[in-house]
């Protein structure tokens, strides 16, 4: 073969796209569709979406930059279409992605409870036996940390089957399964999570640096960079492990940035355990992370739904214990942002297992929240949540949102889960009476109450549910 022919052949295979584009992918329906990649400098690139029957659904041309990078945004395509995507250049061979669907795409991120595989859940055998679903597509991003933003991830789109979903996120799977059943649309799930990681690892560095209240995070990181051997955690171990998965921005750089701005509908998030020692900090950090993702994606305030932490450790025995209660409260600051919701795991925890095996309930609640927040489902789709209170004599009258139709309370060994105080420091168990959508709390030991807490413990007593069988979120009236 002549050198001229070899050179010509090399030129015919120069188009590349990130791994997030591939066979079996789901394209977000009814939204503009960004595509990007690399080719020869100055090359004209055409991206086209065609139905399996060959009908042209969407098309756009662009020209690569002097470095060979290209990007373009295709017009939206309706949901529920089987299609293929071709990417061609005037100097390169075309790439075709097949078995592509249009539907709803969700990013599923967090730490180990999001990473927890379907093969580990309590009902794994049943779930895996029923996991064949061509309308559910999975993309599992391999763990990768980086000091600088990366351009690509390791992973591939797979059709959901017992073998492909075996080690895939159980929470994400049950979320997608329920959403698919409700919408009757294809669902694409992008799982990107890493166990024992804090929220700052998933947040862009410039966002963290913009918030003075988060200066501790930056200062700790700078101290580590100056002398890694001097930085130890509370157990005397290196503060950041060799993989640096806890370092600020390193997981955003390695596992989020490379898929931005792939068109998505929204994100679900299960994390918080690794920030439990800094709840005040998390009140700022968590909403900041959400806002930074939205800014980077440039899709507006896309839906973001988080999991409130499950109970864990010794079951609550005292009226007010703390534990994970403050970090759950801090998680709730995200609800002050537009287009956010919550699916709680507070009542599905296990005393001796930080990774509760009931991920089906969690996935169902996330899907229900998405159906209400995003897809127009009516009725109760989110847990009841404390809204306001008033004090009359020695009684505290509590009012809630998401309580339409009334609440129900079933005592746990004679305890209601409510605590009351007259000074903010000394708490006693309280009686609680449900009056429709209101709960009246009191105690003979407290004549002049000033505050109430409910479920205020690492593994709290949970007794109150809505008519949709969704648990009341733990709260304190004297919110910190």
Description:
The structure is a single chain. The chain folds into two domains: 103-216 and 244-373, Rossmann fold; 385-476, Immunoglobulin-like. The strands form five sheets. Strands 1, 3, 4, 6, 7, 8, 9, 10, 11, 12 and 13 form an eleven-stranded mixed beta sheet that branches. A four-stranded antiparallel beta sheet has the order 14-15-20-19, with no helix packed on it. Strands 18-17-21-23 form a four-stranded antiparallel beta sheet, with no helix packed on it. The chain is built from ten helices and 23 strands. It is of the alpha/beta class and 480 residues long. α4 crosses α10 and α8 packs parallel to α9 (325-331). Residues 103-368 form the Sialate O-acetylesterase domain. Pfam families: SASA. This is Sialate O-acetylesterase.
Question: CATH superfamily membership of the largest domain, which one?
Answer: SGNH hydrolase
What is the overall silhouette?
globular
CATH topology of the largest domain: Rossmann fold
**For the residues shown, what is the average pLDDT?**
96
Which class of the largest domain in CATH terms?
Alpha Beta
Domain count, please report it: 2
Give the helix level as a range of percent: 10-25%
CATH architecture of the largest domain: 3-Layer(aba) Sandwich
- End-to-end separation in angstroms reads 75 Å
- Total number of beta strands: 23
Largest sheet: 11 strands, mixed
Secondary structure tally, helices: 10
Low-confidence stretches: 1-11
Q: Main traits of this protein?
A:
480 residues; alpha/beta; Rossmann fold; Immunoglobulin-like; 2 domains; eleven-stranded mixed sheet; four-stranded antiparallel sheet; 20% helix; 28% strand; globular; disordered N terminus
């Amino acid at each position: 073969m002549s050198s001229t022919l070899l050179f010509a052949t090399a030129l015919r295979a120069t188009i590349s796209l990130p791994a997030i584009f591939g066979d079996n992918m789901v394209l977000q329906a009814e939204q503009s569709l960004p595509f990007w990649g690399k080719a020869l400098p100055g090359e004209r690139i055409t991206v086209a979406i065609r139905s399996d029957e060959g009908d042209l659904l969407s098309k756009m041309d662009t020209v690569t930059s002097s470095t060979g990078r290209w990007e373009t945004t295709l017009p939206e395509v309706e949901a529920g279409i089987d299609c293929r995507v071709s990417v061609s250049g005037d100097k390169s061979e075309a790439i075709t992605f097949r078995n592509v669907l249009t539907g709803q795409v969700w990013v599923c991120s967090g730490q180990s409870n999001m990473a927890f595989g379907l093969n580990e859940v309590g009902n794994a055998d049943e779930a895996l036996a029923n996991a064949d679903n061509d309308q559910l597509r999975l993309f599992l991003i391999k763990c990768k940390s980086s000091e600088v933003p990366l351009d690509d991830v390791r992973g591939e789109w797979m059709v959901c089957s017992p073998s492909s979903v075996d080690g895939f996120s159980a929470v994400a799977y049950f979320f997608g399964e329920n959403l698919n059943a409700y919408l009757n649309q294809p669902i694409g799930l992008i799982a990107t999570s890493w166990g024992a990681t804090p929220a700052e690892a998933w947040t862009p560095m410039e966002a963290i640096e913009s918030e003075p209240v988060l200066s501790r995070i930056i200062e700790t990181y700078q101290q580590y960079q100056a002398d890694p051997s001097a930085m130890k955690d509370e157990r005397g171990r290196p503060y950041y492990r060799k993989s640096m998965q806890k370092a600020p921005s390193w997981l955003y750089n390695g596992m989020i940035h490379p898929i931005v701005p792939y068109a998505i509908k929204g994100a679900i998030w299960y994390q918080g355990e690794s920030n439990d020692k800094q709840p005040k900090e998390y009140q700022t950090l968590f909403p900041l992370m959400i806002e930074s993702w939205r800014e980077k994606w440039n899709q507006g305030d896309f839906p973001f739904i988080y999991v409130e932490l499950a109970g864990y450790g010794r079951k609550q025995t005292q009226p007010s214990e703390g534990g994970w209660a403050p970090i759950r409260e801090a998680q709730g600051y995200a609800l002050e942002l537009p287009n956010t919701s919550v699916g709680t795991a507070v009542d599905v925890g296990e005393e001796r297992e930080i990774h509760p095996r009931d991920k089906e309930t969690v996935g169902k609640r996330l899907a229900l929240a998405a159906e209400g927040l995003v897809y127009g489902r009516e009725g109760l789709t989110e847990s009841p949540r404390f809204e306001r209170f008033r004090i009359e004599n020695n009684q505290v009258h509590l009012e809630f949102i998401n309580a339409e139709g009334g609440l129900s309370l079933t005592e746990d060994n004679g305890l209601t889960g409510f605590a009351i105080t007259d000074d903010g420091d000394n708490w006693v168990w309280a009686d609680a009476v449900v009056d429709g959508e209101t709960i009246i709390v009191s105690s003979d030991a407290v004549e002049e109450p000033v505050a109430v807490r409910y479920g205020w413990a690492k593994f709290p007593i949970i007794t109150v549910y809505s008519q949709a069988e969704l648990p009341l979120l733990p709260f304190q009236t004297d919110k910190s």
